[in-house]
Write a structure and sequence with these properties.
The complex is a heterodimer of chains A (259) and B (331). Chain A is an alpha/beta fold and 259 residues long. Chain A is built from nine helices and ten strands. In chain A, the strands form two sheets. A six-stranded mixed sheet of chain A has the order 6-7-8-3-9-10, sandwiched between helices. In chain A, strands 2-1-4-5 form a four-stranded antiparallel sheet, covered by helices on one side. Classes of the chains: A alpha/beta (259), B mainly alpha (331).
Chain lengths: 259, 331
């Protein structure tokens, strides 16, 4: 198997009296799409927010290519190529498409003046390659559909050379067609650029077709880490819904079949 | 709809200014009007300077009520600096440093400190009031005001039979530079983004804390220069009542200028001319009847009445910065 890119060990995180994560281990290999699944409140978002530098873990270690690292801010994580598209917002509605696309990595003339034309052209071309035709690159992002917005966020993460793309519920509020397209972008990013992808969802239907491996969380603990060929979509769903008992059921079921 | 309302508001201000101008020319003659206009520019400068800095703060999501106090404190330290070094330029620099220090403390307190911006702003104002009264007594041995020696005041150039400070050009320059910074540069884009959504900006590698602190420092610097202008340039006085709400007027300018630098500059020019008219109306034969009835207070309160009217009448705009006054907490 290919090498490990990221390893998180024994991650603990507490919000006030509530344990969000209790000793979670998590790893991502190079060029792999990991489905991080679990029901609402399982700690999926918290885990990736720690990985992308938004939260600090209470305890635990993070290794990047075998070296221990600590991310004090999202900027630190970005330097290592960890690009996150968070569920709580990844674009600013009031800014235009190209401003959103280049925010934080602007192209500038001396004295910090923006290279507006260049940025507009690049943004237009990148989006075109993803199959998104934008009528006007000066359009404000707030006027776009959910699928277009996700595509811009994903396209941006890919363009700026994300080694690891973290996508938190990228298909949550999308139509069936848009979901299909967004999943295609994600697969493209892996196949063409070899990026690793962490795909968060509570809908197995969305994750299952493109993921290589699943990490299942339940109430802040990891209850399973399975390769795709070792689990069926039904089993995975059972695992998410019933947690550990679900796993027991799966095992019981398999034994029954064997007998 | 909103564009229309904005246009209407802008046009009404321009129209009102033209009307005042025409009336003045007809009733007062050209030289009188010209002098009134120069006085208007002189009283515009501190408001324009403070407003441009505050504008940047608000775009980045900070609401600094403390610019009034910053101006007051800087006006005093500027006089002190000029006295100590014997040159007005050092005085301006002292005012600038005072402003940047206060701005920096405010910035740190409301970002890393998660402080309430309104309370910190009020705190700065109260601190300045008390400190200036104390320093006036200790350093200048006076309870009311201290007159700056003539050789320490900023040189003026003479136009006709009136004078104008080259500092008024600095005010205009500040507004233009800020307009360019906000709309055309990387820093401006990042500041706008932080004001709209600090979380998204943060996840894209723009540190909202550092950006807001830098904006607060710039705001403090412009307020500091405005204060230094008040004491060393325009009035030539150091006093605890020198600023007289000009910081708050700057806040009002930013609000109804809709966070647009050029419109904010226009607003400060409007207020400047109103303030000048208020001062001038006390000394003309036209109003002697009203003056005998205690009219000076009426005329002095005129600009403030119009501030309230303007704030009430101007159409509410879609905010260009959604998070003004709300502290950002990472995670």
């Amino acid at each position: 198997m290919s090498t490990e890119l990221i390893r998180m060990e024994n991650i603990h995180k507490k919000f006030g009296p509530i344990y969000a994560l209790r000793g979670v281990d998590f790893f991502v290999r190079e060029g792999e799409i990991v489905g991080l699944v679990g029901d609402n409140g399982a700690g999926k978002s918290t885990l990736v927010k720690i990985l992308s530098g938004v939260y600090q873990p209470d305890s635990g270690r993070i290794y990047f290519r075998g070296q221990q690292v600590s991310f004090n801010s999202p900027a630190d994580a970005i330097k290592k190529g960890i690009m996150a598209v968070h569920q709580t917002g990844s674009l600013i509605d009031e800014l235009t498409i190209w401003e959103n696309f280049f925010l934080g990595r602007e192209l500038t003339w001396p004295l910090g003046f923006l290279k507006k034309k260049d940025m507009q052209n690049i943004a237009r071309n990148v989006l075109k390659q993803l199959g998104i035709e934008v009528v006007d690159i000066n359009q404000r992002v707030g006027t776009l559909s959910g699928g277009q917005r996700q595509a811009i966020a994903i396209g941006r993460a890919i363009y700026f050379g994300g080694k690891i793309l973290i996508l938190d519920e990228p298909t949550a509020a999308l139509s069936l067609k848009e979901t299909d397209e967004v999943l295609r972008y994600i697969k493209n990013a892996r196949d063409k650029l070899g990026s690793s992808v962490i795909l968060i969802s509570h809908l197995t239907l969305h994750v299952y077709p493109i993921a290589d491996r699943f990490t299942v969380l339940e109430k802040g603990e990891k209850i399973a880490d399975i390769e795709k060929n070792a689990v069926s979509p039904e089993d995975l769903e059972a695992l998410i819904i019933w947690g550990r008992q679900g796993m027991a059921k799966i095992r019981a079921g398999k034994q029954e079949v064997k007998e | 709809m909103q564009k229309k309302a904005e246009l209407l508001a802008t046009l009404s201000i321009i129209g009102l200014l033209c009307l005042v101008f025409i009336l003045a020319v007809v009733f007062l003659g050209k030289t009188y009007t010209f002098n009134l206009f120069l006085l208007g520019i002189a009283s515009m400068v501190p408001i324009a300077l403070a407003a441009t800095g505050e504008l940047l703060c608000e775009r980045a999501g900070l609401f600094n009520v403390g610019i009034e106090g910053t101006m007051l404190l800087a006006s005093l330290t500027a006089v002190w600096g000029a006295e100590a070094a014997g040159h007005w330029a050092v005085g301006i620099l002292t005012g600038l440093i005072t402003g940047s220090l206060i701005g920096g403390i405010f910035g740190l307190a409301v970002t890393y400190g998660q402080g309430n911006q309104l309370l910190w702003g009020l705190g700065i104002n109260l601190f300045a009031q008390g400190t200036v009264a104390l320093l006036l007594l200790k350093a200048f041995k006076t309870l009311t005001f201290y007159r700056v020696p003539a050789h320490l005041r900023v040189p003026q150039f003479i136009i006709g039979n009136s004078t104008l400070s080259w500092f008024s050009l600095v005010g205009l320059l500040c507004a233009i530079v800020l307009y360019l910074v906000i709309t055309k540069t990387r820093y401006g884009l990042r500041a706008r983004a932080v004001g709209l959504s600090p979380f998204v900006a943060d996840t894209l590698g723009v540190d909202p804390y550092k950006l807001r602190i830098s904006a607060a420092i710039v705001g403090g610097i412009t307020a500091g220069i405005a204060g230094a202008y008040m004491s060393l340039d325009w009035t030539g006085l150091a006093s605890a009542t020198l600023i007289q709400g000009r910081g708050f007027m700057a806040l009002a300018c930013v609000k109804f200028g809709g966070l647009n630098p050029l419109r904010v500059f226009g607003g400060s020019l409007f207020f400047g001319i109103l303030l000048a008219a208020g001062m001038w109306l006390q000394n003309v034969p036209l109003t002697s009847a009203i003056m005998r009835q205690g009219g000076s207070y009426l005329f002095l309160s005129l600009p403030y009445i119009i501030v309230v009217l303007a704030l009430g009448l101007f159409p509410y705009r879609e905010p260009l910065a959604k998070t003004i006054g709300i502290p950002y907490k990472r995670g």
